[in-house]
Every structure is written in C-alpha cells, then in structure tokens.
Design goal:
This protein has three helices and 31 strands. It has helices spanning 33-43, 205-210, 212-217; strands spanning 10-17, 22-28, 49-55, 58-59, 77-86, 96-100, 105-111, 114-119, 123-127, 133-138, 144-151, 154-160, 164-170, 183-189, 196-202, 219-225, 228-233, 239-243, 245-246, 249-250, 254-260, 264-269, 274-279, 285-289, 304-309, 315-319, 324-328, 334-338, 353-355, 362-366, 371-375. Strands 2-1-5-3-4 form a five-stranded mixed β-sheet, covered by helices on one side.
C-alpha cells in the first residue's frame, strides 16, 4: 500500500517483556532506540524500572541510533528486560529515604543487604537494609578513611593523609551482627601516601573458580593517589602498574573509582571536572563524561568525587560542586540530575556512592551533613527502622 503524501514509511515491532506481556508497536522507519523506548513506556507497564532492549543477540543501547541501522526490521521481535534501577527522570519522594549517621560519612559499600560506611574519624558503621545501625567499631588505620570496597571476601579501606591501603579480614564471618570485633588487619600497603579504591577484578577467572584461596591471588585492586592510578595484587600487595595516563588521556586529581562488568574502569577525575572510562585490559580511553563538546549547562560536572554503575549499567556521578548526582548512560548520554539541594559543598566535601546490584538500591553518603540516603524504584525497600 502506498503511503499518504508526506508520511514516512512505517514498520511494526513486536515487544515482549520477560513477565509475558506483549504489545505490537508501529514506528516510522527513521525511529531511533530512544523513540522505541518512549513508545514502550507509553504502551507497556515499565513501572519506575529501567529496562534493556534485546533484538536477536544485540542489545539496543545507543539512544540516537536508528533502529534500521541496528538490523531491526519490520516484524522484528524485541525483548524488554526490566532492571532493578530507578527511572531517574521521574524520581519521586517516595523513592528516597534519609537518616542521620556518624560524623562525616565517606566511603560506603554493600555486602549482601548490609551497608558498610567508613567515617572520616575511622569508625566503621554497619547498617541493615532498613538503615538501622547494627554495629560500629574503630578501624585500625592511619589517616582518614575515604573509599572502601569488598575484594575477595575482605574489606579494603583507603585512607587520605598518608594512611595507605589496609585490608581487613572477617573474624566471625559475614553477615555482620552484634557482639564482637569483626576484623583484624591483614596487610597494610604503605607504598601510597593517599588512596581511593576501584574495587577488585578477577584476573584469571577459570583458575580462580577452582579454588577459593586462589581467588585472592588473582584479584587486582585499583588505587588512585596524588595524580596517579596504581594497580595492586590483593594477595600480597605487590604493585603491578602505576601510571599518570596513557594514549590520549592523563589524570589530574583522580578520586572515586569503580569497575564496570569487568571491562571498564571508571575514574572520577575531580581535578579535571570529568569522568574517564578506560578499558581494563589496555587502559585505553574509551570516552569521557560529559562527552566532548557537551560540557555545558546541565551536563557539566564540577569536582566529581565518585562514580558507580547501577543495576542497569547507568553511571551515577557524585557531582560535588553542583551539589547533585548526575546520571549518564555508558555511551555518554546524559539522563538526569537527581538529589539536587540534598548535598552541600563546603569546599572540602567528599561524598560517595554505592549500589546493591541485587536489589537496585543506591546508597549515598552526604558528607558534611552527616547523613545517608537510599534511592530505590520500589518504595517498599525504603522502610527505615525507627
């Protein structure tokens, strides 16, 4: 059938959710991935969740990419996979919870459903999923704890002010509870004067899977320190790599780090108002956030202190000077600005982020205001204990 004059040719797509819901959508042939996402939101029950779109074996990610260039044809079937992460463009008050905590909360990390928080004065606080404080103790560290991470079943703590990096072994095991000291110091790396952490990476998965003890021997911990990025082996603290930069990139004052899907190292370069995404294998620059040429207006970052990937692969950036969290897709597309007005930048503020990938809950430390906050698509997960 001929199309009416001036009307673009259209094609039909069949969309199926993992829950069994199905819908047929009609889009014009110049439609982009973003057009498809918007059509799905208007026709299907996506709730507040993020979701991924799969066509054949291809994940439809780049929002501005035309569907036809991704080999999506008339009659194609698209699979919608919901993710346990917020739709940050419509984050409501019911999806936030805030509690007071110890003085100057810095680094934080999830272990199961427990949230571990290290404060500036060296106190480790452990919270339940309802943000109820269930344990705290003084960490045996020098300096002031900043970022923390779990690696090979141990807690790794990086400290500013010549504190180095300290590994703590669980004494009574996990999960945390009451009653006794849970950690003893195993190893202190004094080769760094100040540090932030990038979590762990399994170097040889096949070898590590055979034996639990071997996992520790094949884990890397990434550390940022005074304008350098370093890589250490977890088992003995051996320095594997130390660099200022690479081809087409150089760090200024790197702070928070995170590893994404064992493929990318995200670096919050506080001194250069950007986040770098580097390949783990070659440490090559893949892209910057914000994207080149777009660092103006709402996309511009100011002293980003931390970056973390949520359950759907979105990147959340602690944007210190702008007193907010900026959300980007991994391709560099800006999604939303959230928690505006919650944070306060007093000139020496260091707030951090963590994500529970099992539940999708995002935790934030509000450094100078001595608060913790949780974000979740599901308000039922944000019932705070009195």
């Amino acid at each position: 059938m001929a199309n009416p004059e001036g009307e673009k040719p259209s094609f039909k797509l069949h969309v199926q959710s993992m829950s069994g819901e199905e819908v047929t959508l009609e889009l014009h042939q110049d439609a982009t991935v973003n057009d498809l996402r918007e059509a799905i939101r208007s026709k299907m029950d996506a709730g507040g969740s993020g979701f991924r779109l799969i066509s054949g074996s291809r994940c439809l990610e780049a929002p501005s990419e035309k569907l036809t260039s991704l080999e999506v044809e008339d009659g194609s079937t698209i699979i919608m996979m919901k993710e346990r992460s917020c739709d940050y463009t419509c984050l409501g008050e019911a999806q936030k919870a805030v509690v007071k905590c110890g003085q100057y909360p810095n680094g934080l990390v999830y272990h199961g459903d427990r949230l571990l928080v290290a404060t500036y004065f060296g106190i480790l606080e452990v919270y339940s999923s309802e943000l109820k404080l269930i344990h705290k103790e003084k960490l045996d560290v020098q300096g002031h704890p900043s970022q923390i991470c779990m690696a090979g079943g141990s807690l790794v703590v990086a400290s500013r002010d010549r504190g180095g990096v300290v590994i703590f072994e669980p004494v009574d095991g996990f999960p945390f509870g009451r009653g006794s000291r849970f950690y003893v110091t195993r190893r202190v790396w004094r080769s760094v004067e100040t540090a932030r952490l990038g979590g762990d990476r399994r170097l040889d998965r096949a070898r590590a899977d055979r034996e639990a003890d071997r996992v520790r021997c094949w884990l890397e911990v990434f550390v940022s320190e005074y304008g350098y990025l370093s890589t250490f082996r977890l088992s003995d603290g051996e320095l594997l790599d130390r660099r200022k930069g690479g081809v087409h990139w150089q760090v200024s004052n790197p702070y928070g780090l995170c590893i994404i899907e064992e493929k990318l190292l995200a670096v919050a370069d506080r001194g250069a108002d950007r986040v770098l995404l580097l390949s783990l294998d070659e440490m090559e620059l893949l892209r910057e956030l914000p994207m080149e040429g777009s660092a103006s207006g709402v996309t511009k970052l100011g002293m980003p202190n931390d970056v973390v990937a949520d359950a759907a692969g979105n990147l959340l950036v602690m944007d210190t000077r702008n007193e907010r969290v900026a959300v980007f897709r991994q391709d560099g597309t800006f999604i939303a600005s959230i928690m505006e007005g919650f944070f306060k930048d007093k000139g020496n503020t260091f707030s951090y982020l963590a994500c529970n990938v099992e539940t999708g809950v995002v935790a934030l430390s509000n450094n100078d205001m001595h608060e913790l906050a949780l974000l979740s698509t599901d308000p039922a997960r944000l019932v705070v204990a009195e």
